[in-house]
Design goal:
Elements lengths: L1 H16 L6 E4 L8 E6 L3 H14 L4 E5 L4 E4 L2 E5 L4 E13 L5 E10 L6 E2 L9 H15 L4 E6 L2
Antiparallel strand pairs: 1-9, 2-7, 2-9, 3-4, 4-6, 5-6, 6-7, 7-8
Amino acid sequence: MKNLILFLISVFMVSACSTTLPAVDPSETLVDKADAIYILTNDEPEDAYRRIAQIITDHGYTIENSDPTLLIFNTEYKMDSIAGGMMSFSMNINVSVRNEDNNDSIIKLTAKWSRNGSTPKKIYNDGSKLDVRTKGWETLTSIAESYQNTTIEYSRNI
């Protein structure tokens, strides 16, 4: 009984000392556990919306829902794998385009992953670990970098 109480106290102390990372506003510096990519472009919002949709479909994703008035869309889940195909997962991408005051655009990309119909989880920059989040983040980054002549920024909202 005494060991159980000591164990519970230590679990409580560890959980009380753990903290989540604070949110970070968009910046060009990639932060640990960044979960959103922003593409800043001189394109007008409607052009940016069409262009990012084309880039994402060129990466093999299918648009599931879109609203060209609100300039948002998300893709269907697409299968991918890591570790030489030993572990598969599905990923979807969410996109929103916003107008800047000068008619430039900001495109926000976020993504989620799932395995075998499990509850979707956020994709985020997880350092150098070989896992689903890292692979998903690399895909999201590749899509952002395919949009030429832009500035890319990152934020964390976890």
